[in-house]
Queue: 4 jobs
Job 1
Amino acid sequence: MRSQTLKENKDFRRLYYKGQSRASSCLVTYVSKRKAKGCRYGITTSKKTGNAVERNRSRRVIRAAYRLLEDRINGNYDFVFVARSKTSKVKMQRVLCEMEKQFKALGVINEND
């Protein structure tokens, strides 16, 4: 099942303040459990991360990495991914590896998967 995207500012703020987070050099992940069925995700890239081309590449890379891990998620969660300035300069496999580590640390996917 494909995840929906977060669009409302209140959802992003709720995750920033009440969600659990993990950070690495190229990605920050906020996670919160939800009662409704399915997962939702949102991606933020600030102007500090670079020009429009770099911000769009960051979002594209994060979205691709998330889609590869989407089927392994256990339960219903909301995610917010925050791109860092390094995100647009690394390969998608690096972001995928970082995201997988963060998901395991947050208990979103199983360790042995």
Job 2
Amino acid sequence: MNTETLIPVVGVVTDIRQDTPDVKTFRVNAPNGGKLFEHKPGQCAMLSIPGAGEGMFSITSSPTNNEYMEFSIKKCGCLTTWLHQMDVGQEIAVRGPYGNAFPVDTEFVGKDLLFIAGGIGLAPLRSVINYCRDNREKYGKIDIVYGSRSMDDLVDYQEIIDEWCKEDGIDVHLTIDREQEGWDGHVGFVPNYVKELGFDTNKTAIICGPPIMIKFTLQGLIELGFDKTQVYTTMELRMKCGIGKCGRCNIGDKYVCKDGPVFRCDELDELPDEY
């Protein structure tokens, strides 16, 4: 491992966007402007506030963005509560990047891509989606299926509506769990919606969301005729130290932080059922 990834660098929060009632997106720059470091789609970074703790979060901006890095963070614990109390202009310690990445420059090239996300699970995929948008000539048709509990819980909704939905070769399919006033789109859970849409099996699928959603979506894809070698997912939920030392993310003979967080789904069959 590059020892530079172990040393925190100081970042400045230059913008905070309230995405949903419990998700904020933080834009972070180096003190003199620009990005803190380079990363690949799907990699993570450790954010820390002295005295409050540190945690691993997906880098949600694309590597093609040379101006800043972004992190979409759900308020769900002590550290994330501290982060949600931050103001623009405050400093934060960041180290990384950690983990492997989605094979955007190898396995994905020339393929039709199917992104499937649930809730905050869109955040790790946003980096990959925007990388593919910025290198559009490398990839075939792109489908994005995204669902959340309600219309208000859809992360990056304005970017989806204003940009993704308007691009040629990209089809966006949105759904929410139950009926809501003002919503005239699809209603239903993501795994069922994927089966309803009935995609051709000549695609590479990328899934991220709650573990139960990933489980049932994968089952649905297999019912449609997909092979597990065509499906990728990310599991950064389990990571703690990021360097394979603490053991918290150990599953069988794998460390999620070093061997992942991106896994092809047939690789998951080799792991014990504890995840």
Job 3
Amino acid sequence: MMGKNARNEVGTIRPKEQVLPAGVLLGDYEILSPLYRSANCIAYLAINAQEQQTVVLREFFPVPHVEREPGGCRVVPVAAEKSALVERRRSDFLHKAHCLSKVNHPGVLPVQRAFAALGTVYTVQPYDHSPTLLQAAPAPEMVTEAWLKARLLKLLDALTALHGAGVLHKSLSLDNILMRQDGSPVIIGPDDSRETPPEHAADALPTLCYRPLELLQAKLPVGPWSDMYSLGGDMLSPYNRGTAAQLHISFL
């Protein structure tokens, strides 16, 4: 999903964390290495042994509610009272994967399949070597209104496809939008807000998504407008002077 350099810079999995080791087989897939972890999942680079296709496996692993069985790979709740919560979140994870599998849009990284194993569930997505928007964006002084507007319009079109499939992203950031060689942005699905190791925390500030109030206060309604707010804030955050201000005015 992300290029190897991308994951070495932000969101790298450290050995002490509960990740599956290389060589573990999950049906047709063999784990090669961890890529990143988010609040809801751990992503791995894997290979389909039959088709020799490199993919990304996303393992439902919501910390701090689950853990590995001692000496094994199976995922279990940390306590019996967490079981109902874990089941609800697993159902939501699968529901989003099912909805994403129906999205056919060049600006959305597709979900190819989902399956259960080791006490949890996994989704399969193509492995995309493209850098993130955070890495690929030019220096602020090189950005024009046309550059920003072209990408915003494509991203808004991709968001429309997501929302049409019943998916709210709710975690858009510069680090979960890929930039392909032709300049086209691609949104990685929800549940992929990366956690950053402490040694990279200062450098990771621009990756924090702009969350509207309704994502911080449970009583407020959440909708497509929430993603649009986050997208606008994220796209303009590195360019908060000059053309960014002009672009904001031109879109009003």
Job 4
Amino acid sequence: MIFLQYAKCSTCKKAKKWLDEHGIAYTDRPIKEEHPSADELKEWHAKSGLPLKRFFNTSGMLYREMNLKEKLPAMSEEEQYELLASDGMLVKRPLVITDDAVLVGFRESEWERTLLS
């Protein structure tokens, strides 16, 4: 299992604490330094069943600075993958990647259902 996170993010800290408290083993990957590639994002998006927009960190400064709320609807999926891959700070975090699931953001009930069952 891969756990992509940004160490300074309070939600990521909470999620990491939750994983540790439940004894769940993971490979820690800093999203800013080792941001996902476009190919990884395509694979994870397909596996997640979520809309691609959910992979964007819509509350992040970079998202707002780039005015992506206005630009995304006119972009192709391919362009969106490339954009997400260009900077880890554009990607919603934390991200958990297992063999059969992708969790975007930290929702404790969703994590319990997916990781503890």
